[in-house]
Amino acid sequence: MGFFGGITWAILVARICQLYSNAAPSKIIQKVFFVFLTWKWPAPVVLKQFGCVDSKLGNLVWNPRKNVADRYHLMPILTPAFPEQNSTHNVSKSTLHIRQAKFENFILFDMIQEMKSALEICNRIQEGNATWNDLFEEINFFSRYKHFIALTINEDTNQGFFESKIRQLVQILERNTQVKIAHINPRKLKNIRNESTWFLGLEFTENAKNLDLTSEIEGFKRKMTLQAKGIVQLDATYVKRSDLIKFISVEDLKRGRFVKNKTAVNRKRPTSSRDSTESKKPRVDSTLLKSNIVNQ
């Protein structure tokens, strides 16, 4: 889904253990978030220097000087055994989401924002103002965004295949200059018809309006058609936050800690006497998004 897995976190913890070999476990956890929040990405995280390898096998090793694809990795965290590979090759721009506005401000979200929040909680734990349960509390995905795409597949579709391809939709949406963030919820949910549904949270640029994502959705479906084996049926529906209750249960909608403040990410545009409130809202036509695809 484009987020850190267990191997990646293990490598990060191992690197901190190398740097702070005498630190207590609680300090190790705090340092994981402190060090990698301030890490100069895309500088790679490595546990050991690369050794000499057979020239015939050297192309398997992560090397941005030789491999063009490796140059585009945003957060390289390398496995320590041969062949050294980037364990975060699937981290996308929205997952990292570090953007600079006129070299003055950085908008930090997703992985970086999570590290920042975790570091704050660790600091509060050391001060006695929080517990470890606070650190591991799930964050409510639906409190982060106002716009969503619900991706629903039927029971005959291979869910593992679909999950492996969702990242491609995120990458397609990222190419749209009016899409600031495309963030997939890694938790699969059941809709009111008991169908498997994934939600993709969207945030748009400040000047976005009359936005139509039909071509991006259809492009993703075409890729699914070409790559799928067997029957694939996919519904893609635009959903506003206020309409989520029509798709999922109250329990799923309220699960986890709500994001209290997103003003750093959602800045208001100056109002204009010529602009109505409605015209400033990006339009995503649900009738254009909602369609089926069957590949046999």
UniProtKB/TrEMBL annotation:
Keywords: ATP-binding, mRNA processing, Nucleotide-binding, Nucleus, Signal, Transferase
Organism: Caenorhabditis latens
InterPro entries, per database record: NuclTrfase_I-like_C, PolA_pol_cen_dom, PolA_pol_RNA-bd_dom
Domain Poly(A) polymerase central: 1-138
Record GO terms (molecular function): ATP binding; poly(A) RNA polymerase activity; RNA binding
Stretches with biased composition (Basic residues): 262-271
Renumbered residue ranges of the record's region Disordered: 262-286
Basic and acidic residues composition-biased segments: 275-284
Sequence similarity: Belongs to the poly(A) polymerase family.
Stated name of the protein: polynucleotide adenylyltransferase
Subcellular location: Nucleus
Catalytic reactions on record: RNA(n) + ATP = RNA(n)-3'-adenine ribonucleotide + diphosphate
